[in-house]
Amino acid sequence: MSRIRFIVTSLATALAAVSAATLAAAPPAAAAPLAAAAPPAAAAPPEAAAPSGPVSAPAPASVPAHVWITTPDGADKLRDMGQVAFGGAPVTAPAIVVDPTLSFQAMQGFGGAITDSAATVLYRLSPAVRAATMRSLFDPATGDGLDYLRQPIGASDFVATKAYTYDDLPAGQTDYQQRHFGIAHDQAQILPLLRQAEAINPRLQIIASPWSPPAWMKTNGSPPASPASLVGGRLIDDPRIYRSYALYLLKFIQAYQANGVRVDAITVQNEPQNRTPSGYPGTDMPSSQEEKVIADLGPMLRAAGLRTQIFAYDHNWAEHPNDIAATPPDGSRARFQLMTVSAQLRVAPMIRLRACHLSVSEKVFAGSADWLPEHSVK
Fold it and tell me: How far is CA 345 from CA 125, 318, 351, in A?
């Protein structure tokens, strides 16, 4: 298996070394004045005078780079190869040049997700090893400094338990007022880990995304569908369902906050165009339905005094093989009043927004909404 070598250095370091070499070769600057006047130096004898012709500067000092190697077969995983010197010979390995004088897209952060399965694995570790693992992941000084998590709202495709939501009911029952809402499942492992992560890195931000609403809200989770399923289907087209789902999302944010975890942003649906998830929770949610949910959710957040952002179209950079090749028009005529200009907007053409016409009036929702390709914060 061929090796992949990445050599990373700061161009500023290289430039500094070159500049130092150049300065060393240049004539010295005038000395700073002394506290007491010194007698003028004697003139140099003619034979000591500097040559009148051009002087060649010495070659720039070699700049070292620290090298780590990871190979596709896993034989090497960030193996420390020590330092190597830069040279002028061409390289065959991929090279990364870091130029601190150039800036492009602003990044919100880097991270992953503490899913149900991730929490289960972490809790199989001893408390001491688990604490060390969390520090290695989130500590900005001694670890990786992860500072952005994309948390599932309920079950995702990575669960160690049965798929769940926070308001699961037997088939045929409804709960429009969310009286049975509860996050007991997350209180055992997920929330303690999130609190620990925030304690280690106070800069941590969380965006939360649901893979599926409760099954009783969906076309494949109500009679005559049996049994209720979180896999596939759409929201039932009913104003009571849209409002109840918005209330469900609000209660999630409030419940996490009451348990010491701040949710900075939320999306209405993970991969809304993944119409046929393969055995895991998912929902086909056209923009017309997202619009109706957000039209209820925005005022709820405002009335609750929450500044949680809403992100729309939480999808992949490229369409999943199970998705329709291009996001089809769905009949919605609304337009999003985008209150926040961010990096996601600058990649809008990559996620085919031409077919989507989401809308929430600024009068209806005075918060912030934005387009979010799913993997932009992973």
Answer: 41, 16, 10
